[in-house]
Amino acid sequence: MTATAAPTDTQADPREVPGGGRAHPVKHIVRIVVVPAGRSPDQHEHLTREQLVAAGTALKKMPVPGSKGSPATTMFDALKPTDIVVVGKEVASIRLIDDSGKPVLSPPPADQPQPARQLWEHNPVNTDTVLRVWTDSDTIEYRCDRQFEIVRVERTGWKIHGAPEDPFGAGRHIAAPSTADAGLFVWTSGRLPVSANNQQYKATFKIGDQLIDPDYVCGDPPPHP
Questions:
Q1: What secondary structure letter does DSSP report for 46?
Q2: Helical H runs in the chain?
Q3: Spatial contact of 162 and 194, defined as CB atoms under 8 Å apart
Q4: Residue 31: which of 171, 175, 145 has the closest Cα?
Q5: Contact (CB, 8 A) for 205 and 32
Q6: Which residues contact 132 (CB under 8 A, 6 or more apart)?
Q7: pLDDT (0 to 100) of residue 44
Q8: 3-class secondary-structure state, position 78
Q9: pLDDT at 178 over 50
Q10: Structure confidence by residue, pLDDT tens digits, 1-46
Q11: Beta 185-188 vs 173-174: how paired, if at all?
Q12: pLDDT 10s digits, 163-177
């Protein structure tokens, strides 16, 4: 997801005011990409700079599914900060960084200078990698070229009384082969309930024998984590 910009004095962004989600619902497409990184780090062992560079190089060699006939674009160029890059047993994201090293939440138009793209290990400080989802309007579709399952969803950070433990609903969440894109597996949520407002969640995915757990936050509008 590309986070919406803060509203200005001259024009309020409809996705930043209460009810803006229902007026402009979004299906957030989240890509999950598994890349090699030499020696796999142990669970919760920090990725080394060498592993991140190797993973970035691998992304630069990966074509974007469905990009035939369009200008050459690699996954390194196409991934958003809220997409998920699996490196061994850890998670990283492509972040957009300006000249001062701060994250760029909304990329400029294509005809303007573009921010630098860098692969970063997930870190609680990097809130631009947290998916912001509007309740009672938005859905999330996860896509990966490998079979995956959401094995657990749990509230994290603050725990709001009455917020559901799993806003995706009861039962197992198992990806199925895509009917539109051969070789991809997809799972799509329903609309997240209003009772999840302002709650941050960690969804744990199982891909092969690997477990990864990126965060998302819900609201109307969702708070900035």
A1: P
A2: 20-23, 49-60, 75-78
A3: no
A4: 145
A5: yes
A6: 1, 3, 216, 217, 219, 221, 222, 224, 225
A7: 53
A8: helix
A9: yes
A10: 333 334 444 456 788 899 999 999 999 999 999 997 665 545 556 8
A11: unpaired
A12: 999 999 988 899 999
Alpha carbons 3 and 105: distance in angstroms, whole number: 6
Give the residue carrying structure tokens 């969804």: 203
3-state secondary structure (DSSP) of residue 49:
helix
- Enter the DSSP assignment of 97: E
Distance CA 196, CA 119 (A): 30
Mean pLDDT of the chain: 86
Strand pairing of 116-121 and 131-134?
unpaired
pLDDT digits (tens, 9 = 90+) for 59-110: 999 988 765 545 558 999 999 999 999 998 889 999 999 888 889 877 788 8
- Rounded to whole angstroms, the Cα distance separating 187 from 149 reads 9
Residue labelled with tokens 């062992």: 45
